[in-house]
Amino acid sequence: MLNDSWPLPHAIAYGGDYNPEQWPREVWDDDVALMRQAGVNLVSVGIFSWALLEPEEGVFDFGWLDELLDLLHANGIAVDLATPSVSPPAWFFAAYPQAQVRNADGVTMGFGSRGMASHASPEYRAAIVRVADALARRYGQHPAVVLWHVHNEYGVPVGEDFSEQSVRSWRQWLQQRYGTLAALNEAWGTAFWGQWYHHWEHVVAPATTPTTINPAMKLDWARFTDDQLRECFRLERDAIRAHAPQPITTNFMAHQSWNTDLWKWAQEVDIVSDDHYLWSPDPEAHVALALSADLTRSVAGGRPWILMEHSTSAVNWQGRNIAKEPGEMQRNALTHVGRGADAIMFFQWRASRSGAEKFHSAMLPHAGPSSRVFREVTELGSQLKQLGELQDSRVRAEVAVLYDWESLWAQDLQWRPSDDLQFRERMRTFYERLWRDGVPVDFAHPGDDLSGYRLVVAPASYLLTTADAANLTSYVRTGGTLLVSCFAAAVDSHDAVHAGGFGAPLADALGVRVEEYRPLRAGSTCTVAFGEHTLEADVWTEDLVLDGAEVLGRYGSPAKGGATAGAPAITRHRAGEGTGWYVSTRLGLDALAPVLEAVYADAGIVPADHPEGVELMTRHGQNHDYVIAVNHRDEEVTVAMDGTNILTGDRLGGELRLSAGRVAVVRTVASLRVPTPDHPQLISTQ
Ligand code: GLA
């Protein structure tokens, strides 16, 4: 249940994970002095401290934590107090070996890492409640504690668990979901390959099998895994809530998560928080960062959110861990702010000398306070201090991009028409097109109320329930513009092909049905004639049957196996008051440009007019709007803008000059907000 109580009123929170238990006591005083120097006002404490807090079962030692919280409080540094449930102590596994996780191959995950406990284990559940309860009783009234941080990144490194207890819980979960075996057999389509179940105790978990496993079973397993994790979160949260008034969060991983359906998780936390790390092989990793930040804000319902972790420079867990360029950390951090984050935190405060993450960057690196990274950390701290007035200002978007974790889970199952058509790739490419066009977006679930958006884009809606398709259809019929990408509405919530064929539930909105998928061979391309443009496409084509739609793009040069030349590729359909567009092939960034231009025109969206490589984000406050401008280019740029650059104090005389790689935060006069006749509920910022 999201609430609006921000832990640090009128301030952007700044800090990181703090693991002082790895250091002698005298280092703590240096830490706190340097934190003050860097402008740190919030640290996350205790994430991996279970073995210290409870050295023996039921015996707690809070001495060190008492001292630490008092020290931080005396220095004006607030605490995000964690529960340590991601890393149970050695004694726990010695006492309860049955609580270890088993993987799909039946291998038990041993001690010596983290995240090794089975979320289904009653012993684990009892132990995490005991620790959360003890922490909340002891620190619920401590003045340093402003936030609770339950667990760490649910679902990694381990989400799925094939232990005996987990399989027992799975059967109970299925009994609750389906009631009868007949219903389960029906939902899973067990008539196929003779998989009928006649006894509940014969129902298995989708462990390693000789060939492809029942996809409906696997999809339910993903839901079950997500539910198990969330049950554990709720147990800890409720134990804390009984004794502590502060808001409670857990750190998500937005677009990088797989096991967690964040639309559901966001309903369980008081404040949404997210971790984000750049993926080094991605030359445009800042676009993935923007996507992740927009997705996080969207699951938070537009409310302020916490960037709980990112890195000051390199991480240590990729094949090649690339250090950030000077200024890159600031660009990353302020992009998160521009997209709604009101807290900028890092993993971690001080780099660890030992253990698996010693090559990971930190706010205070091994090179110490005279390093470039620490200087930049201090500079960022003082900049964020100037941005307190942005707290609780909001981002607005006229476009919603549909994102559904269930569709991701389903599309990632085996034996699709082509391995080359991927949920994450489609999401990224459509998002990047909108990003390059300077069109702000929210993400939304296909079942959400979409009436406030001029345009809804569905890059990867492979799984779409008939109810959600009806929601999209009524969105179009009442005046919305919908753009749907290929392989949409293929299956229902059991991964069964929709009655009526591929895409049938959207036929009314799109005026088209799909007769056959015609994916292309690796490396093959085809063209689409779209107005005066010849668009290049790859990976995927479809044979469409028109049912009222007009054809705006036709397949040109055919690829072997693909749709035939002259066949419809891109369609547009007037349905009721609105318009439904369908793109039946895989278009890249450039090919999407003219298509989106035409779609924007239908939707009444005006793309931003700004230099390429400059990212402009607006947050709307009570009295002012704030434009966060990030220059990703290697040269100075000029952007038309009025207002005051808060970071430099400069008043702009109609233009902002931004040198290579720099960021500005400009306070402008709040724009006029007039509801438009087409969308009375829509706020226009023209
Ligand atoms: C994750 C974890 C942290 C740390 C970082 C390293 O986000 O939550 O504990 O391991 O990765 O990048």
Can you describe this structure?
With 686 residues, the protein is an alpha/beta fold. The model is unreliable at 672-686 (pLDDT under 50). It contains 17 helices and 30 strands. The structure holds alpha-D-galactopyranose (GLA). Alpha-D-galactopyranose is lined by residues 152-153, 275, 277, 309, 315, 347, 357, 360.
Topology:
Layout: E1 13-18, H1 25-38, E2 42-45, H2 50-53, H3 63-74, E3 78-82, H4 90-95, H5 122-139, E4 145-149, H6 164-178, H7 181-188, H8 215-241, E5 248-249, E6 251-252, H9 262-265, E7 273-275, H10 285-299, E8 305-309, H11 328-338, E9 341-346, H12 372-385, E10 399-402, H13 405-411, H14 423-436, E11 441-444, E12 455-458, H15 466-477, E13 481-485, H16 507-510, E14 512-517, E15 525-530, E16 533-538, E17 542-546, E18 550-555, E19 568-575, E20 578-583, E21 586-587, H17 589-603, E22 614-620, E23 624-631, E24 637-640, E25 643-645, E26 651-652, E27 655-658, E28 663-669, E29 674-675, E30 683-684
Parallel strand pairs: 1-2, 1-9, 2-3, 3-4, 4-5, 6-7, 7-8, 8-9, 10-11, 10-12, 12-13, 13-20
Antiparallel strand pairs: 14-17, 15-16, 15-18, 16-21, 18-19, 19-20, 22-23, 23-28, 24-27, 25-26, 25-28, 29-30
The chain binds alpha-D-galactopyranose.
The CATH architecture of the largest domain is Alpha-Beta Barrel
Structurally, how many domains make up the residues? Answer: 4
What hetero molecules are bound to the protein chains? alpha-D-galactopyranose
The averaged pLDDT comes out at 95
Radius of gyration: 26 Å
Give the fraction of residues assigned to helices.
Answer: 25-40%
Q: Main sheet: which strands, in order across? A: 11-10-12-13-20-19-18-15-16-21
Q: What structural class is derived from the secondary structure elements?
A: alpha/beta
| Main pleated sheet | 10 strands, mixed
Query: Unreliable segments (pLDDT under 50, ≥5 consecutive)?
Result: 672-686
- Name of the CATH homologous superfamily of the largest domain: Glycosidases
